[in-house]
Every structure is written in C-alpha cells, then in structure tokens.
Design brief:
The chain is mostly beta strands. The protein is built from two helices and 45 strands. An eleven-stranded mixed β-sheet has the order 9-12-15-17-19-23-27-29-31-33-34. Strands 18-21-25-28-26-22 form a six-stranded parallel beta barrel. A hairpin with a 4-residue loop joins strand 40 (462-470) and strand 41.
Length: 539
C-alpha cells in the first residue's frame, strides 16, 4: 500500500505568519494589516485599492460605458461618456466610449457630439441592434455630429442599428439638420465611421441630406453604412462635398448603400465648388438605388474641374420605377470618373435612359471597365457622352444587343484616338462638331458622302461638304467637295470622298459643314460618314 500524502491546512493568520510578520509591512502576530500595500494593491492598509481597476461601475478597465451614466435620454449619457473618453477623465484611459449596452429603443433629444473641436481622439462603439430616434427640432443640430480624429465603430448587420428622426423640417429653424453630419473643416480632418444606418421615411432634413459629409482628408473611411431617405423634399440621401471644405486624397467608402425607395432624392450626390475641391475619392463596392422620377442615381458635379472619382469593383444600381428617360449617372465638370464594373438595372419597361450622361463642354475623362444592364436596357441607351471628347454632341456609344459592354473610354491614350459621324438619309444642310481635341496632335480627317435616294428632276440639286478647324495660327477650311445626285442612287459615281491631315491644338474643334440644294422635282437624300484619327500625340 502506498504511503498517503500529508496535507497541511493553515488558517490565514498562520499562512501570513509563515510568509513573515503578518504578511504585510508593519503587521504583527496575526493582527490587522497596516502600512503601505504592495503587489497588485496600491495605497495603504486598512483600505488599499486594486491597481488598474476603478470601483466606478461606469468606467471599467479604462473604458467608459454610456449605459452606466445618468440621464433620461441617450444623448445626455453618450455625450458625458464621450467627454470622459476624449479627455481621458474620471478614470478613462482608453479614449473609448462604449454604448453596446444601451437599450435598443432610445430618444436622441440633443446632438450627440463624437469628438470635439480640439481634435481629441475618441472612439464611440455602437450596439449590434438599435432604433434611436431623434426629436431634435431646431434646424441646426444633427442626431450624430462627428469631429475630426474620431471613430464611430459599429458592427451591425444592414439596417439593424438605425438612427432616425421624428421631426420634419418646414424651415431652416425646424426639424433636424441631418441624421449624420461631420465637421469637415480644413486641417486634420481625418475620420472613421462604420456599421450603422440612417433612415428617414417622411421627415425632411433641414440641410436636405440625411447623411452629409462636408469634408475629409487623406484616407478617411466610411464603411458598411446604409442611407435610407424616402423623403421627396430632400436633395440627396448621401451628400459628399459641396462646401468650402475639401474632400480629398483617397477618402474611401466601402460597401455603402443608399436607397431612396422610388420616392426619395438622389441616392448619391458628389459635389465640388469654389475652394472646396473634391479629389481622389474611392468607392469599393456599393449599391445605389431607386430615386424618384426625374432624379439620377448618382450625380457628380464639379465646379473646379479637378475632381477624380473611382468606383472600384462592382457598383450596382437600380433605377426609378416611373421614369424611362433620366440618365442613371450625371457627370458635370470633373477631371476623371472611372467605373471598374457598372451594373445598372432598369425598373420599368421600355426605358431609353442613358447610363452615363456627361454635360456639354465638360473636360471629362470617363472610363468604364465593363457594363451590364442585366438585359433591362436596350443597346442604344448605354452611354450618352456630350463631353469635349464626344465626336458629335450628343452621341451614343453602343453596347451589344443584350445591353453589355466590355470597355468604354474617352481618355487620351498612346494609340490613335478615333471619333466618327455616321448620318443616313439626310435632306438638309448640317453643321456639326466631329471632335473637341483633348491634346495637340496631327489628325487625319476622312469624309465620305454618297447618294442614298435619287430625285425625278435633278436641276441644281447638290450637296457640298467642307472640313474646318483651327490650327496654331488661325481658323482654316479645307477644299470643298461636291456631290451632284442622279435620278437613282445606283450610279457608279454617286459619291465623293476626301482625306485631310490637319494640326489642331488641345481644346479646339474639328467640324464638318454640308450645304444641301434640293432637286427641281422629288426629294433626294445623302449619307455622310466622317472620322478623325490622331496620327501623332504631343504630351
């Protein structure tokens, strides 16, 4: 039989004495401990404290918990919590205010300020589920107002943590300014926000925007954000820029959704005016859908002509259910807009809406890597481009019969850039622009005109064609070619052609003019085909 082990149990006093002198400095013979505490304790006996842990229930391990603060409405508790976090006060050592323990249904009676004008860093954590409704009614305050150098951290699934409003703005001094707005002022304007939804169904925003980003600097990020604005009186669900502040330098948007449910405003509006330029924006994925009739899905407007926006990956769009003509995406004045893959789906039959419309005279570069309408849009309505790169404003770039396109670009490339015009059954005079040049170059201009229907008595019937341009010195006009029709369009000589080499600086036009004279009897018609090729490019 094995020898049994001897187990010795000692009372606390005995154990303390075994350690020595009562276990603490100044202790003696099993009496109450006295003197300075050590180890994981600080202070002195008989009332030491545990190092690194506060006894306040609202701040645990350096993190403030808004649910443990006093206040009858969410804003009171959260603002007090954030104030402790951003100033590292009252035991907060992390810069974090945690609201994950707040009840799902709450009232926001005054603006929640995330951060401060001093730029103190702070993180505000949101719960996975919430329905927080604002009762603000002064026209100037937002439900959430974010300052620079702050982070709003949410982890909710789509439409699960929702910020809404119960007030309607009927003037500049009523309702709520926006459900979310940022400060956007120049200087240290760095932001992070993720994982929540703003939603307004009938209540107008005083600003006109449910989610309003006024400005941001390098690599600011908004991710996993949903905007639901179904209020017809609003201007945009998600508005970026358009102030005197700057939004720039790889500011990024990941998996952002903006849906107007067929009754609301423009889902995404990107603006730049005056000194408030917007440049270098990135959208990684995204879904933008269902504006009311007469509104685009995405509007990009730049009064400074320096804006660049890239949509990376797949951007998904669904149009209005009561509009067959408004362009899905409207671009004015930007320098560069690029869609990697654009999927735009019509929500009503017989739509002739253009997918992209570029304003006349805008010096845009528009690139579309690939495009699909899921078969809902006809091939002739995919890209309407009235920019300076267009061969004949307005013009259409065609897809195949199923409404898809491999690639579209109007940017300058080190290969011959071609513009063309193809007109049939013409019975009148024309003056049209073939191309607005985007770089100084030697261009080859070719024109071909043929008779497509004869007349009974020719008389003085004819058509003349002339090419005109402006070179580095003056306005020029090429030799005129003349086509005289016959009584039938089958004549072997019923055509004329011409090829010219012309030098044209950047931002000038190459035009063609036709002069039509009717036959004595009967109406004759002609077809005109013209092209411009950049033979050499000067960079």
């Amino acid at each position: 039989m094995a020898a049994s082990a001897a187990i010795s149990l000692a009372c606390p006093q005995a154990a303390a004495q075994a350690v020595g002198g009562g276990g603490v400095p100044g202790g003696g013979g099993g009496g109450a401990p006295t003197g300075a505490a050590g180890g994981s304790l600080s202070g002195t006996y008989p009332n030491p404290t545990i190092v690194g842990t506060t006894v306040s229930p609202k701040i645990v391990n350096g993190v403030s918990y808004s649910s443990q603060y006093t206040g009858s409405t969410l804003d009171v508790r959260v603002n007090a919590c954030i104030a402790d976090a951003e100033t590292l006060a009252n035991g907060n050592t992390s810069g974090i205010c945690d609201s994950t323990g707040e009840a799902s249904t709450q009232t926001i009676a005054a603006q929640i300020n995330v951060g401060d004008s001093a730029g103190d860093p702070v993180t505000w954590k949101l719960p996975a589920k919430c329905s927080w409704q604002s009762s603000i009614n002064n026209g100037t305050s937002s439900a959430i107002f974010q300052y620079a150098t702050s982070n709003i951290e949410g982890n909710a699934a789509e439409y699960q943590c929702v910020i809404g409003a119960t007030t309607n703005s009927t003037s500049g001094s009523t309702g709520i300014y926006a459900l979310y707005a940022n400060n956007g002022t120049n200087g240290s304007g760095y932001y992070r926000a993720s994982g929540f939804t703003v939603e307004t169904n009938t209540n107008k925003m005083a600003s006109g925007f449910a989610f309003y980003i006024k400005g941001a600097y390098d690599n600011s990020v908004w991710s996993d954000i949903e905007v639901a604005d179904t209020t017809a009186a609003d201007t945009a669900g998600l508005r970026i820029g358009g102030t005197t502040y700057q939004t720039c330098c790889s500011t990024a948007f990941y998996n952002v959704t903006s849906n107007s449910s067929y009754t609301g405003p423009i889902p995404l509006d990107i603006e730049a005016t005056g000194t408030g330029y917007t440049q270098g924006l990135r959208f990684m994925g995204g879904s933008f859908d269902h504006p009311k009739a007469g509104q685009p899905i995405i509007k990009i407007n730049d009064g400074t002509n320096v804006m660049s926006v890239r949509f990376v990956g797949t951007i998904y769009e669904e149009g209005s259910n009561a509009d067959t003509t408004t362009a899905f995406n409207q671009i004015t004045g930007t320098e560069l807009v690029q869609f990697d893959t654009l999927v735009a789906v019509a929500e009503t039959g017989g739509s002739t809406a253009s997918i992209v419309s570029v304003a006349s005279g805008a010096s845009n570069i528009l690139n579309i890597g690939s495009y699909s309408s899921n078969g809902t849009l006809p091939s002739h309505t995919v890209v309407s481009d009235s920019s300076n790169w267009c061969s004949n404003a307005p013009c259409l770039t065609l897809t195949n019969g199923s409404g898809t396109m491999n690639q579209y670009t109007n940017s300058v490339a080190p290969v011959p850039a071609v513009a063309s015009a193809n007109l049939t059954a013409q019975s009148g005079s024309l003056f049209n622009t073939l191309i607005y040049t985007n770089s100084a170059s030697l261009y080859r201009v070719s024109v071909y005109v043929d008779e497509s229907a004869g007349c009974t008595t020719v008389g003085s019937g004819k058509v003349t064609v002339a090419i005109s341009w402006t070179d580095g010195t003056a306005a020029r006009t090429g030799a005129t070619i003349t086509l005289t029709p016959g009584t039938a369009d089958t004549g072997a000589g019923s055509f004329q052609s011409q090829t010219l080499f012309v030098w044209v600086p950047a931002s000038e036009q190459i035009n063609y003019t036709t002069g039509y004279t009717a036959c004595t009897t009967g109406t004759w018609t002609y077809d005109l085909h013209a092209s411009v090729e950049a033979v050499s490019l000067q960079y």
